Each structure stands twice: as C-alpha cells, then as structure tokens.
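Input.
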Amino acid sequence: MMKAPQPEVVATASRQNPGETLRQAREQKGLSLSQVAGQLNLTENSLRQLENGAFDKLPGHTFSRGYIRAYAKLMGLDQAELVNSFDHFTGTNASGSTVQSLGRVAEPVRLSRNVLRIVSLLLLALLIGFGYFWWQEHSARTPETAGLSLEHVEVESADGTTEIHTLDEPEDQAVIEAQKEGEQAPAEVSPEVAAQAEGAPPVASEGAQVLAAPAQGTPAAPQQPVTAAPAGTAPAPAPGTAPAVPATASPAAPPAPSEPAAAPVVAGEGQGVVKVQFVADCWTQVTDANGKVLVSALKRKGDSLELAGKAPLELRLGFARGAQVSYNGQPVDVTPFVRGETARLKVGQ
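Output.
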C-alpha cells in the first residue's frame, strides 16, 4: 500500500516547469530580468511569463520552445533536457518538429521601414535629376538673355539736354547711328537759317555798284560817230547825256583782320584738358568723372576738339585710328584700348 503513490510523484516531477529552472539559474548568475530580456531580444513581460510557465500567453509553442533553447544556452544549461521538460509540461509532442537553437531571437522584418527607405531613395534621385536638367537649361539661356538685359542711364549733356545711353551699347552701333545723323544733318536746314538766306541781298563789289547805278537810271544813248576834235578844243558833250565823270581809283580796302586764335582751354581745380585731333571721320563721346556727357558727336577729318572736365575723363572713339589724343599736353597712346575699330579709355586717373 505504500508503493502506490510513486507513479504520481514521478509524473509530477516529470512535469516540472522549465521556466522555474531557468529563473533559478538566472538568479544564481546575478542577472536581472531586464538584462536577460535585452540579451534575448524579448520584453520583460514575455520573459516573466516564460519563467512562470504561462506558455499559453506566448505566441505559440514553437516560439516558446525556441525561447527555452535560447534561454538555456545563455544560462549554460542542457537545451535538449529543458525542451523535453517543456514538452512534458505543456503536453505537446516535439516529434517531427525542427526547432533550431537560437542564440538570439531574430528581430521581425519591418516592411514599412524598407518601403520608406526605397521611397526616399527614389525621391532623392528624382530631385537630383531635376536639378541637373534645370542647371543645363539655365546655362543655355544665360548667353541668349545676356544681350537683352541692358541697363539704361540718363545723362545730361553740356548743352542741357538729357540723353539716354545703354551701359552695354556696342561701340559699332553707336558709330553707325552717329554717322547716319551726320549724313542727314546737311540736308536738314532750320527755317530760321533759310529765312536769313532768302532775305540777305547778294553782295557785289563797290565797282560793280557804281557802274550799275547809271546803267539802271538812264536809258542807253544811241551811238554816234566820234570825230576828232581840234587840238585845244574840248569835244562837246552829246545831247541828252550827262558829262562823263572821270573815274577815280578808289583806295585799296584794308585787308580784313584775321580771326584771333582760339584761347587755350584752362583747366580748373581737379579738372583735366583733353585734346583730340581727327585725321579721319570718327564718332566721339567724352564723359567727365560725374558722368556728365561733355560732347557726343561725329567729328570730321581735320576737326579738332579741346575741352576741360573733372578728371578722370572717359573717351569713346568710334574709329580709333582716326583720332590723335593728348591729355594736359601729353600724347596718349590709344592702341592698348582698341577693340576692333573702336576704343574706350579713361585719362587722368
């Protein structure tokens, strides 16, 4: 009668909770629940349920069996023995199941993170491609629009008129416009000059006026034969005619005084004198340091220009080889400033 209860004791011992064995091993090693949970990549709640034998609250016996193996390996215990103890405790059959030993429970794949990474890479590639094509198009348009963005500046010339100039106006275009204006200038005569020309009487010499007066005042006398008068007698005057007045030589008119030479231009304080002698037609513009246009016109061959202005003075020559420049009496070489047929330079800097 004393041997009957032995099968129940053996059955009870065989169904011992493997989690309790693992908990005791953990406490012997002095490890906390959170430390072991971190090494196994489990939550503390899941590890606590495993140690308490609440395997029904874990995600399936297959995962629970894997947790037992990983936990036993971490504690240095026999994995197979604890897995068998788990099977007996839960009443499951491990035959046919292949549960691999896990040193660390793999982290579940997070599909959302991979998708986000792929989308981010695609957006970055699109952004780089868009930036590249925009840069190519912008670089191609820059030379085309450079000539259209000319700034204008209004300057007041010496005669008080306001002129508008483009800062980037080509020199050749300015020369062509100036030459056209010079060709049209002789054909355009102001009404005042025309009236003065019509009202001015023709100028005749004094001798011509003296001879023309009797011709217009008396009718022409008929020609009569001239007879030689005896010596000592004077011929009788023809009837109807006035006695001829002997012509007397008028005194020679004094020569007209020559025009006095133009007074040299005197430069004031802070000013300089620029002189240009033209050996060919050349459009010329001179601007002082304040931006005031002192002259802007087409000069003809043989003309000369001399003026003073606040230094430095800027010269723009439409035909550089047709102008000889000097500043304050010193010749200036414009060769280094020639571009094509034009030149642009500053003197008095």
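Residues 111-146 form the longest helix (36 residues).
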